[in-house]
Description:
Elements: E1 2-6, E2 13-17, E3 27-36, H1 39-45, E4 61-69, E5 81-84, E6 87-88, E7 102-103, E8 115-119, E9 123-125, H2 132-136, H3 139-152, E10 160-163, H4 169-180, E11 184-189, H5 192-200, E12 205-208, H6 214-221, E13 226-231, H7 238-243, E14 245-253, H8 266-270, E15 275-278, H9 284-296, E16 303-308, H10 312-320, E17 327-331
Parallel strand pairs: 10-11, 10-13, 11-12, 13-14, 14-15, 16-17
Antiparallel strand pairs: 1-2, 3-4, 3-8, 3-17, 4-5, 5-9, 6-7
Helix pairs in contact: 3-4, 3-9
Amino acid sequence: MKAVVLNELGGEFTIKEIEKPSPRHGEVLVKLKAAALNHRDLWIRQGKYFLKEFPAVLGSDGAGVVESVAEGVSNDLVGKNVIINPSLNWGSRREGHGSDFQILGMPSQGTFAEYVCVPAENIFPIPIGLSFEKAAALPLAGLTAYRAMFYRGALKRGEKLLITGVGGGVAGFLLSFGVRAGAQVYVTSSSNAKIDQALSLGALNGVLYTSNKWQEELLEMLPEGFDLIIDSAGGPDFLQLIQLLKTGGRIVNFGGTAGKIPELIPARLFWKQASILGTTLGSPTDFEQMLSFVTEYIVTPIVDKVFELKDVRQAFDYMQNQLQFGKIVLRISDI
């Protein structure tokens, strides 16, 4: 089968013929129709991820058709159109994952291939109305966003929500979910065009985080501050997010693209009665609830651009240059 292979740190993604996998007990073989890129794939390539096992077939997001099943799995699944939950071996506690937790696409073979084997418990029907391409955009980013917003962040209708760095895949789902859930949504970005696009999708306002006065601009809009801030950057600006909270507000963080957070003066935290919460990906319950939310509120994943499999290098260059608003998708086979 054809697959996108990364042979070494810093190497190029190349298309090669590799052995087609066979499902083991409890697994299904999915013929993939589409897969989506995530920054996780770039970080693995750059050596910023804690696992470094090469050669590797990356890719955490995928949608396709069940081609065969192994022992212990119902044959009724064969021929079904499915979406894949990339959260493997989460464990029994919704509060946090267990020691065997993995994300599809490292060290296991991922979705940048014509076929992938996954546990039967990790496949679900594609939400009604979604194409393979849009379905492939949903799993990792949608799950991360849903858990951050509703399980960890406990968002309530009418609350004031700030999403930092709008434009990426998770931020796109945070925007869609927040608007559908009845929050008053504000955003930050490095691009006026991306802020304008967020406004067209239901955000109330936004500011450029590249401005020296972005915090003051937000406080002018909302002097009392935000109930919930969801952040993927960390870095020095994280301390300013605490100042943007209402008393009793919450910050949920799921990434550190801006680096380490400087020393925090404890009084800034306890005087705000603030909660700072970390999260990553999500549990099986989170995934099922996310799919239900997407179906009930008719959430359509934002797909910025679709690339053919042969153009995988251009797809990653597009992501590297931060040109997208939403998800970047690879078309694996004819749809």
